[in-house]
């Protein structure tokens, strides 16, 4: 029972190849029968070769003819083959039946080769689909239960053991491990992950067991969004392919009309005999068909999409792969794009009688009760220090926070807020703070209440006063690869690179200077970013926009090519953008542009080869230097050559 099942599966998966092999076998035996004079056997085998080898092409051609009222290349091939066979029967020259069968055979072989070539691209894309397991281990009342991924709910806690795939996006509750994220982000090196960090479905867990909390529906995970977008990319034809499709439909009609004229006029105009006339008309139908031209674009673009997906660059469709190679100007959002969007302690400056550690410990004691990003950055910076959380903590929005730690009142906030408690801010610290603010940093002042002086009897004489301990500069970290990316884009010939941000001028210019951007637009609302993109398009036509937030969505939609950050990006930005950088790695923009330019180059080469072959074969046919089988070999050979050329982008 096993062998018949395997045979059935093989024939189903390789139907085109099996049909071509059977067609070739029947053709060979039929040709042998003709040479031996067994006409009955030959007339039985050769029609079978026509049917088996040409069935799929005939079905597709007739479907297009009757449903879409259009002629296509498949039908022209079948007409040419049947015409050759009919001419052979009419004239009693049976070698023409062999010529028609060879046409069918070569067309079938070509179809099988093209199918295998395209399967390479599809396998690269389909490999995404197998990145997530079907089930997950959910902790329920202390016990592990295996449930379907589709049944997971937000808040569920799941267990992932060493060597297993992460089933869905989540936050680590306990455990420490390294995760291989290459399939999702294109990063080749494993990434260390621990409590509080996000993990993504489809990534491979290393040596540690992890307990993960599901924080979004399974269908909303990063990999599921990738799969949906890649499926969409496969079904959408770019403008160039749509143009070729329209051209092919009109071109097929021209071929038919020209073929009819060639089949009727030459005997009257040039004195050709009818056999030569009809034979050359049939050869014309074959060599003039634009099969290679039809294969010049989509294999190339699908290969580029698959290549990008492997490197963590998600093209939503082939049109964007074409456009990214034509970009002349590019605009970057600042926060979350050129910077990480996560503030951190940049510098600590202490007053003369205190250390940096004293300042950080005092600030962390009160900020530990705050959920503000600045407070969290301070707590993180003081993580290795020994401090105690404050009590009676009170936050004053937009100003600062106060609390009591180790029986001392601590205040942390901006200069105006701290001056309510401190008579004079130290001049040296004030100058340093102003310098940091001019560089775009946020400065936080830290002060504590000094103990009241004591009388000779030991009793307090007063309420005491506050004294400044130091200042903490907070900054949004510039991405490590940002400056190198800008340099690389300039080398690629990008004519204009600008930065768009809603932040203030000082901060914007400090970041722009750090990464090498000369043109800055600051204090922008979402509609202002949109206007800037429109102005750039008027000047440079093809403009790319890189962003991550909801406020970037209008500009991403307006840009010729919208590029979103895959990890830090908002759902709105991801849906609006045309290209997604899965690992938030800015250097991938240059890779995407290189892919786009290379795809354009290969498409142009393919079109040149396809048209060149058509012209050469047409001239050869008109001069009588080629027969039908040679015309078919030239026609189908050029189609296979162009298809394989497109697959170069897989590497």
Q: What would you call the shape?
A: elongated
Biggest sheet: strands side by side, in what order? Answer: 10-22-21-20-11-18-19
Fraction of residues in β-strands: 15-25%
Number of strands: 22
The major pleated sheet works out as: 7 strands, mixed
Which runs of at least 5 residues are low in confidence (pLDDT < 50)? 453-464
| Helix fraction bin | 40-55%
Could you walk me through the main structural features you see in this protein, from its secondary elements to its overall organization?
The protein is α+β, with helices and mostly antiparallel strands and 651 residues long. The chain is built from 25 helices and 22 strands. The protein has a seven-stranded mixed sheet with strand order 10-22-21-20-11-18-19, with helices on both faces. A six-stranded antiparallel sheet has the order 2-1-3-9-4-7, with no helix packed on it. α4 (73-91) runs antiparallel to α5 (95-126). The protein is elongated, with a radius of gyration of 35 Å. The two termini are 41 Å apart.
């Amino acid at each position: 029972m096993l062998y018949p099942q395997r045979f059935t599966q093989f024939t189903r998966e390789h139907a085109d190849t099996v049909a071509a092999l059977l067609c070739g076998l029947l053709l060979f035996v039929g040709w042998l029968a003709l040479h031996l004079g067994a006409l009955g056997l030959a007339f039985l085998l050769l029609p079978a070769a026509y049917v088996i080898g040409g069935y799929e092409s005939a079905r597709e051609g007739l479907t297009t003819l009757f449903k879409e009222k259009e002629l296509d290349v498949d039908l022209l091939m079948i007409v040419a083959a049947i015409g050759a066979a009919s001419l052979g029967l009419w004239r009693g020259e049976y070698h023409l039946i062999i010529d028609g069968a060879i046409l069918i055979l070569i067309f079938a072989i070509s179809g099988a080769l093209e199918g295998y070539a395209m399967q390479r691209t599809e396998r690269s894309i389909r490999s995404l689909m197998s990145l997530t397991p079907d089930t997950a281990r959910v902790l329920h009342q202390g016990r592990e239960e295996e449930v379907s991924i589709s049944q997971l709910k937000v808040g569920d806690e799941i267990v992932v053991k060493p060597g297993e795939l992460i089933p869905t996006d989540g936050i680590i509750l306990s455990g420490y491990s390294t995760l291989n994220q290459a399939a999702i982000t294109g990063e080749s090196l494993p990434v260390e992950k621990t409590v509080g960090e996000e993990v993504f479905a489809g990534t491979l867990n290393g040596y540690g067991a992890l307990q993960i909390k599901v924080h979004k529906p399974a269908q909303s995970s990063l990999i599921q969004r990738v799969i949906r977008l890649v499926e969409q990319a496969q079904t959408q034809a770019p403008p160039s392919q749509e143009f070729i499709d329209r051209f092919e439909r009109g071109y097929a009609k021209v071929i038919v009309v020209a073929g009819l004229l060639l089949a009727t006029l030459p005997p009257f105009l040039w004195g050709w005999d009818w056999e030569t006339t009809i034979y050359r008309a049939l050869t014309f139908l074959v060599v003039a068909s634009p099969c290679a031209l039809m294969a010049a674009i989509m294999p190339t673009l699908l290969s580029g999409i698959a290549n990008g997906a492997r490197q963590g660059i998600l093209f939503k469709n082939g049109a964007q792969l074409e456009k990214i190679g034509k970009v002349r100007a590019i605009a970057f959002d600042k926060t979350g794009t050129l910077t990480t969007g996560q503030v951190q302690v940049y510098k600590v400056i202490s007053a003369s009688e205190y250390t940096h550690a004293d300042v950080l410990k005092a600030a962390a004691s009160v900020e530990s009760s705050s959920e503000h990003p600045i407070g969290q950055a301070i707590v993180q910076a003081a993580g290795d220090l020994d401090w105690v959380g404050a009590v009676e903590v009170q936050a004053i929005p937009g100003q600062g926070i106060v609390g009591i730690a180790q029986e001392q009142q601590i205040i942390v906030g901006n200069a105006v807020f701290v001056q309510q408690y401190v008579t004079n801010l130290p001049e040296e610290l004030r100058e340093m703070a102003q310098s940091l603010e001019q560089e775009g940093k946020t400065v936080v002042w830290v002060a504590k209440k000094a103990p009241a002086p004591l009388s000779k009897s030991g009793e307090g004489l007063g309420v005491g006063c506050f004294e400044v301990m130091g200042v903490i500069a907070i900054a949004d970290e510039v991405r490590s690869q940002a400056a190198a990316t800008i340099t690389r884009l300039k080398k690629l010939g990008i004519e204009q690179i600008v930065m768009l941000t809603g932040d203030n001028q000082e901060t914007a210019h400090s970041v722009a200077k750090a990464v090498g951007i000369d043109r800055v637009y600051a204090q922008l609302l979402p509609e202002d970013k949109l206007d800037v993109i429109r102005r750039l398009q008027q000047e440079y036509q093809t403009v790319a926009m890189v962003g991550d937030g909801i406020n970037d969505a209008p500009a991403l939609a307006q840009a010729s090519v919208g590029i979103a950050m895959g990890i830090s990006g908002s759902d709105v930005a991801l849906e609006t953008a045309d290209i997604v950088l899965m690992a938030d790695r800015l250097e991938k923009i240059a890779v995407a542009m290189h892919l786009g330019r290379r795809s354009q180059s290969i498409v142009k080469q393919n079109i040149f080869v396809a048209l060149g072959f058509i012209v050469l074969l047409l001239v050869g046919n008109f001069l009588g230097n080629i027969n039908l089988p040679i015309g078919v070999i030239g026609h189908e050979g050029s189609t296979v050559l162009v298809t394989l050329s497109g697959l170069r982008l897989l590497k």
